[in-house]
Design goal:
This protein has a domain of 48 residues. Helices cover 66% and strands 0% of the residues. Keywords: Membrane, Transmembrane, Transmembrane helix.
Length: 117
């Protein structure tokens, strides 16, 4: 079977299974680039600089529409009105609120580390 494939030249040299696991995208392939495939670094840098967004009126409009969405403003309004209501009813106790806020931040940090680790 091997001889028949070699004679018909219908085989492709397959990489070793360990090599496929170590380098699935052939990033460390040692075959040299052809002259036509060599990279023009100056051209690549120019193209990447064009992709960088600058601070202009268009970017302000895009960011402004996201920052003034009703869901975000509604949430902040609910938060501020909640603090005002708690303060007016003399229920707000900062000495209890801040440590419990710290506990929530720590738990959220630990939970995110476990999810993304």
């Amino acid at each position: 079977m091997v001889d028949s494939k070699v004679k018909t030249e219908s085989f492709e040299s397959e990489r070793d299974a360990l090599d496929v696991i170590d380098d699935p995208h052939e990033l460390y392939d040692e075959t040299p680039l052809n002259d036509s495939e060599e990279l023009d670094l100056k051209q690549i840098v120019k193209e990447e600089k064009k992709k960088i967004k600058t601070f202009n009126l268009k970017s302000i409009k895009e960011g402004g529409s996201a920052s003034f969405s009703l869901f975000r403003l509604g949430g902040y309004l609910f938060l501020v009105l909640g603090f005002i209501a708690l303060k007016n009813n003399e229920i707000l106790d900062i000495s209890v609120y801040l440590p419990s806020l710290l506990v929530g931040i720590i738990v959220g940090y630990i939970a995110s580390k476990e999810i993304f680790a």
